[in-house]
């Protein structure tokens, strides 16, 4: 992990949430590797940019959810993932 200028990949299918998160993180000095809306986009972007960290929404568009996307990324790349969700139900915990 690059501790002096860490890069973060944001994975969220809600454009406004991803955009606000990106702005907040950039203000704090983090480099944004990119934003993705689906598992396929996240995997492609992670392979291309090799971020230091991935912020992954649990519920994203597409065939795979955020947890499945993270598992797929972890099989190929050793990148830590922090999960986030707007839902507070038993399914997301």
UniProtKB/TrEMBL annotation:
SUPFAM superfamilies (alphabetical): CheY-like
Modified residues (4-aspartylphosphate): 57
Domain of life: Bacteria
PROSITE patterns: RESPONSE_REGULATORY
Keywords annotated in UniProt: Phosphoprotein
Stretches assigned to the Response regulatory domain: 7-93
Protein name, UniProt field: Response regulator receiver domain protein
């Amino acid at each position: 992990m690059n501790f002096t200028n860490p890069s973060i990949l944001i994975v969220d299918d809600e454009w406004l949430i991803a955009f606000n998160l990106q702005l907040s993180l950039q203000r704090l000095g983090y480099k944004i590797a990119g934003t993705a809306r689906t598992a396929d986009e996240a995997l492609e972007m992670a392979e291309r940019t090799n971020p230091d960290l991935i912020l992954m929404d649990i519920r994203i568009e597409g065939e795979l959810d955020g947890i499945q996307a993270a598992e797929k990324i972890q099989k190929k790349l050793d990148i830590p993932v922090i999960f986030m969700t707007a839902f507070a139900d038993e399914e997301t915990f």
